[in-house]
TrEMBL record, chains A, B:
Single GO molecular function: RNA endonuclease activity
Organism for this UniProt entry: candidate division MSBL1 archaeon SCGC-AAA259E17
Pfam families: CRISPR_Cas2
Matches recorded under InterPro entries: CRISPR_associated_Cas2 (IPR021127), Virulence_VapD/CRISPR_Cas2 (IPR019199)
Record family assignment: Belongs to the CRISPR-associated endoribonuclease Cas2 protein family.
A Gene Ontology biological process term: defense response to virus
Keywords (A to Z) from UniProt: Antiviral defense, Endonuclease, Hydrolase, Magnesium, Metal-binding, Nuclease
UniProt name for this protein: CRISPR-associated endoribonuclease Cas2
Assembly description: Homodimer, forms a heterotetramer with a Cas1 homodimer.
Amino acid sequence: MYYVVVYDVNVDRVNEVKKVFREYMDWIQNSVFEGQLTRSEKEKLEGRIKEIIDTSEDMVVFYSTRAEKYLDKEVLGVEKSPTGTVI
Amino acid sequence: MYYVVVYDVNVDRVNEVKKVFREYMDWIQNSVFEGQLTRSEKEKLEGRIKEIIDTSEDMVVFYSTRAEKYLDKEVLGVEKSPTGTVI
């Protein structure tokens, strides 16, 4: 599956969350990652993130499609990390 | 088309960008909106956002799929705005 992850996490935990995501996915912009994950990679990643976040305060969203080709991407402005097309 | 928008915009412009997105889409969390847009709504929205942002510094990403059903969504932690399922 192809994933786009966005998160809104307390400043005390956000760096640790970012470090874990960097191991599995591509950094796109502040609090946004993209990448292909197998089921087991996703489960491992999810488990590690759950250990860090406070589920009563933080929010992490995994958007996914069966493959990257099913997800169109358009960027306005500067590409903070060159993985997509620019309008 | 169903859209997820994420943005990484300078603090001087971010409130104005947020205000415009609120007119067209649902606020999900910090710098993330979701919603169904027709082609003309998308064009209008894009035009208004381009007038606000500094394209040499800010980044706005429009992810889209043909319909919401093609985009799976999983939320870890608290749902900051109740439009999806929680794991």
